[in-house]
Amino acid sequence: MAAFYVTGTDTGAGKSVASAALLHALRRGGATAVGMKPVASGCEATPEGLRNEDALALIAASDPRPDYGLVNPWALPEPTAPQIAAALAGVRVTLPSIVAAYARLATMAEHVVVEGVGGWLAPLADDLEQADLVRALDLPVILVVGLRLGCLSHARLTARAVEADGCRLVGWIGSRIDPGFDALSYQPLLDRALSVPCLGELPHSPGAEPALLSRHLALP
Asked: Could you give the residue numbers annotated as active site?
């Protein structure tokens, strides 16, 4: 599979860290890989334009490094849900511009990692679901499970929603967002509940380099 869509069990599950680590894991064997954050809220004004921290991290983990406008075609200033951020910015997020940017990225590298927003059912716009984008790009989905109390239910609900939307869940990544959580006990439960391969578990390491974290991932 040449490209993936990364979603999470919720906001703060660790999608951005996992996406950057995935890029490094894909590149380990000498392949080229680029990241994409189609819609990003919470962007800061810079001399070069609006910039989002997660999108910049994806660029830093990419090889080659694409232009910012391709990685993040919809940059929204307010750090809130994309629907609200777009309304406050006076813009309407649309699918064609995202598809066009993705098509250009796909010509630049062997792999593209597309990071979603929030949880699976967080809309990209009033009339645009994440499932619409995944189907338009025909991307398999990787689920990042934020390992904390309640993660089993969140993971099962997300997996069911992905499949109900006609999309393909192909793997999951554990993300230790709560260092005190007994993730070891939940591993077999999540394995049975999700019935797709676990690609690895990222440790609780704030500020760790994605290249180092990628060593915790094992891609098929």
From this structure: 37
